[in-house]
């Protein structure tokens, strides 16, 4: 293994820092090495430094990538997505443009359940093909890891089918996937009016089987009075915890301080959405050490103006995470750079805070902070070369995808731009690879 060196970066955004999620003013420190370079061996970062420092220690035969003064940074870690589903809901998008709301559409039999019907009918391979298409979209926006929820099956067989697709996607080794079981996403048609019975099925049939097959690391619940009310959510989450799952909660998307209190009580890793959380809910989450995962693209796409209070969360010292929420209903956008743009314009996060929230803080929320999310010696070489020289351009030039090349574990997973990146091989000077 001769290794890989990236030289001539414009900004090398490392996010090097303490081995924990970043809070408060720490979120503004991106650990930038101007004109930096990086050496990778065996899929991991060996050294970061100036170009001169790295070039002094190039192993013979090392592949050298000249970043051409472009921005190089860790791949985004998208800590909340729903990327395995059949069909799409462009019809509902049109209906919302005509004045209907997300809840009205759901009440008419559309929404999550319409995707469930299509996903149940789809073959596993067809779901895989659809998800592979979306994987390209993630890579093009510079994302190298996604948390992937099930939740469009809502029966044991269909949930297993989705989780197997996620497993196969991960085995493909292009994008990394962290699987989450979201059986409690909605009550399926056959249990209509019997949410309690469906919750019992989640607890007694689904959770044990998914735990036994090791198909998910986390369990999530859509906790809302009209979806999974707090008492049912608590039961599902405590059984999930007993079986060894980490906990994530869809909280307060529509109802103030509802899911957030369940998440705090359950000691969840994350509480996600938080559009309607008040100061009291935020304080409960902060005291319980729950990381907030904010999904501003869902707010934007639903045409709402109720963005989560990111500034207050940062003031409270909460290690904020930003994610896309990619799904066919509320947020059909895999683009993390678009999410960054909305975070900066609508929630007044600074570009640096938004990048910290979508890399290192997101990695810690998935229990992978010691492996990914920053560029530091010992970590996996998941990095992206972007077509700009300054990190602030990512949210500033909104609506474009900037990734030129995405590397996962030191291997080029995607070339997203036809313009050349110059690569060459180190001559026979310097130490040879061990
Ligand atoms: O996070 N709120 C629940 N789940 C998704 C939406 C899923 C859908 O509409 O299909 C969300 O916004
Ligand atoms: Fe979601």
Description:
It is a single chain. The chain has 434 residues and is of the alpha/beta class. The chain has two domains: 4-74 and 374-433, Urease, subunit C, domain 1 (Roll); 76-365, Metal-dependent hydrolases (TIM Barrel). Helices cover 35% and strands 22% of the residues. The strands form four sheets. The protein has an eight-stranded parallel beta sheet. It has a five-stranded mixed beta sheet with strand order 5-4-1-6-19. Strands 7-16-17-18 form a four-stranded antiparallel beta sheet, covered by helices on one side. Strand 12, helix 9 (259-266) and strand 13 (270-273) form a beta-alpha-beta unit. The longest helix is centred in the middle third of the chain and has 18 residues, at 195-212. N-(iminomethyl)-L-glutamic acid is lined by residues 82, 111-112, 115, 222, 250, 253, 298, 325, 327-331.
In short, what is this structure?
This protein has helices spanning 51-56, 90-97, 102-107, 112-121, 124-140, 156-171, 195-212, 230-242, 259-266, 279-288, 296-301, 310-315, 336-347, 351-357, 360-365, 393-396; strands at 4-7, 11-13, 32-34, 36-41, 44-50, 63-66, 71-74, 76-81, 143-149, 176-184, 218-223, 246-251, 270-273, 291-294, 321-322, 383-386, 403-408, 411-415, 422-425.
């Amino acid at each position: 293994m001769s290794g890989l060196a990236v030289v001539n970066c414009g900004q090398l955004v490392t996010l090097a820092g303490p081995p924990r999620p970043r809070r408060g003013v720490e979120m503004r420190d991106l650990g930038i090495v101007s004109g930096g370079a990086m050496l990778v061996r065996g899929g991991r970062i060996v050294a970061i430094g100036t170009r001169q420092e790295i070039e002094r220690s190039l192993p013979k035969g090392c592949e050298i990538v000249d970043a051409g003064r472009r921005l190089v940074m860790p791949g985004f870690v998208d800590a909340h997505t729903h990327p395995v589903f059949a069909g799409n809901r462009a019809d509902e998008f049109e209906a919302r443009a005509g004045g209907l709301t997300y809840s009205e559409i759901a009440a008419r039999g559309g929404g999550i359940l319409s995707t469930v019907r299509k996903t149940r009918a789809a073959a596993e391979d067809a779901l895989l093909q659809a998800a592979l298409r979306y994987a390209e979209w993630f890579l093009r926006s510079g994302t190298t890891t996604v948390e992937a929820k099930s939740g469009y099956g809502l029966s044991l067989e269909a949930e297993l089918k989705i989780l197997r697709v996620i497993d196969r996607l991960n085995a493909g080794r292009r994008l990394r996937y962290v699987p989450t079981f979201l059986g409690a996403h909605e009550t399926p048609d056959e249990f209509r009016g019997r949410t309690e019975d469906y919750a019992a099925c989640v607890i007694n049939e689904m959770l044990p089987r998914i735990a036994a097959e090791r198909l998910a690391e986390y369990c999530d619940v859509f906790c809302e009075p009209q979806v999974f009310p707090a008492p049912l959510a608590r039961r599902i989450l405590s059984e999930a915890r007993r079986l060894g799952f980490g906990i994530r909660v869809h909280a307060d998307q529509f109802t103030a301080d509802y899911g957030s209190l369940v998440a705090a009580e359950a000691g969840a890793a994350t509480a996600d959405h938080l559009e309607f959380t008040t100061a009291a809910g935020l304080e409960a989450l902060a005291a319980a050490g729950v990381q907030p995962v904010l999904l501003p693209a869902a707010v934007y796409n639903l045409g709402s103006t109720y963005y989560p209070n990111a500034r207050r969360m940062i003031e409270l010292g909460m290690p904020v995470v930003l994610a896309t929420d990619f799904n066919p209903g509320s947020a059909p956008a895999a683009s993390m750079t678009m999410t960054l743009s909305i975070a900066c314009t609508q929630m007044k996060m600074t570009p640096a805070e938004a990048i910290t929230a979508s890399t290192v803080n997101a990695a810690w929320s998935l229990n992978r902070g010691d492996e990914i999310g920053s560029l530091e010696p010992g970590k996996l070489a998941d990095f992206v070369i972007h077509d700009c020289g300054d990190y602030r351009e990512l949210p500033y030039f909104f609506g474009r995808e900037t990734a030129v090349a995405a590397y996962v574990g030191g291997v080029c997973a995607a070339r997203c731009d036809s313009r050349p990146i110059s690569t060459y091989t180190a001559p026979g000077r310097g130490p040879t690879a061990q």
